[in-house]
Amino acid sequence: MTRDPDKVRAVEERFRGLVETLPQLVWTCGADGACDYLSPQWVQYTGVVESEQLGFGWTERLHPDDRQLAVDAWTTASTSGTAFDVNFRIRRHDGIYRWFKTRAMPKTDEHGNLLGWYGSNTDIQDLFEAQATLSSLNKELELRVERAVAETKKSHRDIEKLAHQLKEAQRLANLGSWDYDVASGEVVWSDELFRSFGLDSAHDLPLSLEQQADVFEPDSWVRFSRAVAHALATGEAYRLEVQFFFPDGTPRWSLASGECKRNAKGEIVGLYGTAQDITELKLTQLQLERNSGRMRLVTAAARIGFWELDVVHGRLIWDDVMHDLYGTNPRTFSGSLQDWTERVHLEDLPGTQEAFQQSLAGGEPFEATFRIVRPDGTVKYLGGLAIVHRYADGSAERAVGVNWDLTERKEAELSLRASEHLLRDFVRHAPAAIAMLDLNLCYLQASERWLTDYGLDGQDIVGRCHYDVLPDMPERWKEIYQRVLAGAVEGCNEDSYSRVGAPREWLHWEARPWRDSQGKIGGLILFTQVITARKQLELQIRTQTKELERSNHDLEQFAYAASHDLQEPLRAVSGCASILQRQYQNQLDAHADELIQHVVDGAGRMQTLILDLLTYSRVGRLGLQHTRVQTESVLKEALLLLDGAVQESQAVVDYKFMPVVMGDSAQLRQLFQNLLGNAIKYRSSDPPEVCLSVRRISREWEFSIRDNGIGIDPKHLGRIFRLFQRLHSRTEHPGTGIGLALCEKIVNSHGGQIWVKSEPNHGSTFYFTLPVIDGESNDESQEVH
Ligand code: ADP
């Protein structure tokens, strides 16, 4: 190829001009890398003359940190002989480093041999900075985006959390909420609202107003529906308590509130509100009301008065019952503690006041029984209790308390105590041996007589066991005590009891259980009477009676023998005297006649007396011939024997019913004869009227023989049944004084009694009894034959 030097120069000139107008720093270097050309821009940029930078002087301008990078890139490129790009910083003339993009192109011959390099450095500092700004902006943006995303996520979570919290809060507060849109008629209920109606939000729909009418308590429904209508019409919020029922009928209560929703124009477009389930509260409130109602009833019934004392200001408040108890007038009550202290009984004031002050000072709660004096002077016993409310520092703020009337109980206690004392004294001084034992047979009390009877004088046996006090107790008595503790009442009229070293004693005893106020057996009471003396006396009497009976018998035998044996000589005397009188009457002188008459009379009286005595002694001597006796028959026989006297006196004898008895007919006839005879004999100036009557009293017939005779002076009534006792002289009324004694003997030997009631000039009534025959009918008519 031919080279035209001018052309080449021209090209070079053009090339140089071109290079020097470029904004890049241009350079060339040989195959070894030594720089052989630097554009003026390079020199200008670096502020270092070209000569200093040719060869490898340019590397001095590189940033120390980038030098190695540049060397490495160059080394790689010179080995491979390929173009390369590398970025590094070059120092400007003012010392500031700027980034350059270096691009190197290999310069080869037509055979491809490396001849050198062309290169350009483009200032990319601004680009770098723009990129850096962009990337930091990007980063910032990314950060912001990230933050915004995070925040969105967070706020989303927060909303979810809030919604959850709201639900939880609603559940915890039993607070349901709802939202009603007028236009669509749509109602939205919170889960809790479903729950509060006993419904399940998963299956049930909110209740429409009509459906709510069915579950509301009627009165609540009226108030609720009115409030809703009013709110929709006026925009006024409402809040009211309503009652409704669960589907199973359980009553529930809710606090319903509602407010209006308005649109931008202020028109009412719906309602929203809450329903708080207050069932628990309501039930508690109802229970409280019931309790406080009961409490009021109890305190009113028990007449418990309440008081409250403001300790700091000394103000005392009493309720009506307190005033009633103390007899004070609420209008004139000054309300100071003194109002109370001046009413407490002086004897009880110090103790009561001290107890109250101690309780105020932090001691035990006040509890006392004390007396008060009412304005009318009456005294009452009161019970009192109080508690003290305190400030945080422990000082008393106020005291509240109650008073109640104990007077009746106290008086009952006192009277019980008095009657206990009385009973104790009564038992102690009772003239009988009495002991009261408990269930363990320990003495509760014993009379002094008990101590004396059992040789325990001066000993305190209360609390000691009966068996220890009287160790010689027979076993059979221990068994009796057990029966009595089981409820039996036991007794014995005569029981013997021997103690070691003491003579045998005789007891009459009775043991009975005593019961406590609940009716349970609390122990036993023993009544005993030592009858040893009486028993000895009885034995003595029995011996004496036997003795007496024997001597009586002897006497009767004697009387019988005497009267029987006397009859014979008497009959001789009487016979002789009669003969003497008959044959020698008027033959002797008058005196002799009189004497003979005396002998005849005396013998006659003697005979009567002896006959009467004989009859009397026979009654006791001979055994009774007991048969069924028609008393009417024996009465008639007696009347026949008395016929002369009856005729002579014109006596009238009247009788009706006469029973059958067991007895000796001869003796019973004698009995009627004597009593009827006396009724006629002791007559007044009127003709005798004798009335016989019989009546049954239990197991006896009571006979009465009433006359209208002269009667008997009451002072003599006691003695007329005694032998030979007469109230009249022989001349007034003849007799021996044996008749009534005989009557008594006959009646007694038939198991009966005889007595008389009489007044002088008013007649006499003689009574006697005879036993009713065993098994005989009570009917009087059956006795009449
Ligand atoms: P006597 O008739 O032989 O004197 P009694 O033993 O029959 O003896 O009576 C005792 C006394 O009781 C009588 O003396 C008489 O005074 C009195 N007496 C008995 N029966 C009556 C009578 N029916 N009315 C009044 N006095 C009577």
Question: Quick recap of the structure?
Answer:
The protein is an alpha+beta fold and 785 residues long.
Notable traits:
binds adenosine-5'-diphosphate; disordered C terminus; single chain; alpha+beta; 785 residues
Would you mind describing this structure in some detail?
Helix 17 (532-584) packs antiparallel against helix 18 (590-621), helix 18 (590-621) runs parallel beside helix 22 and helix 21 (665-681) runs antiparallel to helix 22 (739-749). The protein is an alpha+beta fold. The protein has a 5-stranded antiparallel beta sheet with strand order 2-1-5-4-3, sandwiched between helices. It contains 23 helices and 27 strands. Strand 3 (84-91) and strand 4 (97-108) form a beta hairpin. The protein binds adenosine-5'-diphosphate. Residues 678-679, 682, 707, 709-710, 712, 720, 725-728, 735-741, 764 line the site of adenosine-5'-diphosphate.
Topology:
Elements: H1 5-21, E1 25-30, E2 35-38, H2 40-46, H3 50-53, H4 64-80, E3 84-91, E4 97-108, E5 114-123, H5 125-172, E6 175-181, E7 187-189, H6 191-196, H7 209-215, H8 218-234, E8 238-245, E9 251-262, E10 268-277, H9 279-301, E11 304-310, E12 315-318, H10 320-326, H11 337-341, H12 349-360, E13 366-373, E14 379-390, E15 396-405, H13 407-429, E16 433-438, E17 443-446, H14 448-453, H15 466-469, H16 475-485, E18 490-497, E19 505-515, E20 521-530, H17 532-584, H18 590-621, E21 627-630, H19 631-641, H20 643-649, E22 652-655, E23 660-663, H21 665-681, E24 689-697, E25 700-706, H22 739-749, E26 754-758, E27 764-771, H23 780-783
Parallel strand pairs: 22-24
Antiparallel strand pairs: 1-2, 1-5, 3-4, 4-5, 6-7, 6-10, 8-9, 9-10, 11-12, 11-15, 13-14, 14-15, 16-17, 16-20, 18-19, 19-20, 21-23, 24-25, 25-27, 26-27
